[in-house]
Amino acid sequence: MNPTQSADRLPLPKVLVLGTGGTIAGVSTAHPAQGGYRAGVLDIAQLVEAAPGIELLAELHAEQVASIDSKDMRPEVWSKLATRIAQWFARPDAVGCVVTHGSDTLEETAYFLQCVLVPGKPVVLTAAMRPATALSADGPRNLYDAVQVAASPDAAGRGVLCALHGRVHGACDVTKAHPMALDAFTSGERGPLGFVGPQGLQFTRNHPGEKPQTLSVPSAGNWPRVELVSSHAGADGGVVRALLQASRSGALQPGLGGLVVIGTGHGTVHEDLQAALDVAESAGVRVVYASRAGMPQGGAYDGLNAVKIRVRLMLELAAQAKG
Ligand code: ASP
């Protein structure tokens, strides 16, 4: 018999916990300014061990997928995560999945998983703002909360979720908005989907809107290049022309497939940059406009910030290339 079960207790929900690194698995031997901090040092089994009582919430299956600072996140790790989560959910007895992640690119990975996973059983990302060795480290609480969410039937069918500092955010809305504060994440004007903590889990609003079509994960070597460019005073389009030229000459591999433009206001763009973008578009590059003033409204990318639009555009371009 499983050690977490007894004859008079119901079996615990089975939750897969995947570690990818980040500050939640980080250590700090000195003040961060002195360079003593390293992300992704501890393994996922150590993180689980550091969260007292977590074993009473679920039967946990802990696995390491990567041990990186999430600023270095790459498509190979995304592919591994998506594959492992899909395999896990193919088991009829699998209830949920938690991913521990660095806070810096958590929103990109959450949105990637939202795009490629078939909706259903809960996938919950979490992170920490303080290393595991810090005084009052926030990682153990966040991991505990994430497991609470992943093990809850109420979390199913709400898309990919993020449990951070007592709040439950949706993958489309969540963004990191502070480099240090414990409540570094926000869902902007829309607010979180709910709250989680010692009192349990409570959803206060539904998952926003329709989930767009589920897209396939591109195979290795088939991730299209989508770059971010921004509009600002003096934006003259030189970067776009250089990208286009390098792409045409074959110096840039893979060549330029798309551009996400961080525009001003409603996604407006400096006239000189616009001229270069028009040339790129007529050369077959997909150009999508976001705004530095907040989430653009309307259209296929409604409510997404620029880095998430980039994720979606890469997946769409890969799907188109496959035909
Ligand atoms: N640089 C770290 C990371 O994203 C920051 C963190 O996890 O809070 O991996």
From TrEMBL:
<dbReference type="Pfam" id="PF00710">
    <property type="entry name" value="Asparaginase"/>
</dbReference>
<dbReference type="InterPro" id="IPR020827">
    <property type="entry name" value="Asparaginase/glutaminase_AS1"/>
</dbReference>
<dbReference type="InterPro" id="IPR006034">
    <property type="entry name" value="Asparaginase/glutaminase-like"/>
</dbReference>
<feature type="active site" description="O-isoaspartyl threonine intermediate">
    <location>
        <position position="23"/>
    </location>
</feature>
<feature type="active site">
    <location>
        <position position="23"/>
    </location>
</feature>
<dbReference type="InterPro" id="IPR036152">
    <property type="entry name" value="Asp/glu_Ase-like_sf"/>
</dbReference>
<protein>
    <submittedName>
        <fullName>Putative L-asparaginase</fullName>
        <ecNumber>3.5.1.1</ecNumber>
    </submittedName>
</protein>
<dbReference type="InterPro" id="IPR004550">
    <property type="entry name" value="AsnASE_II"/>
</dbReference>
<dbReference type="GO" id="GO:0004067">
    <property type="term" value="F:asparaginase activity"/>
</dbReference>
<comment type="similarity">
    <text>Belongs to the asparaginase 1 family.</text>
</comment>
<keyword id="KW-0378">Hydrolase</keyword>
<dbReference type="InterPro" id="IPR037152">
    <property type="entry name" value="L-asparaginase_N_sf"/>
</dbReference>
<dbReference type="InterPro" id="IPR027474">
    <property type="entry name" value="L-asparaginase_N"/>
</dbReference>
<dbReference type="InterPro" id="IPR027473">
    <property type="entry name" value="L-asparaginase_C"/>
</dbReference>
<feature type="domain" description="L-asparaginase N-terminal">
    <location>
        <begin position="14"/>
        <end position="205"/>
    </location>
</feature>
<dbReference type="GO" id="GO:0006528">
    <property type="term" value="P:asparagine metabolic process"/>
</dbReference>
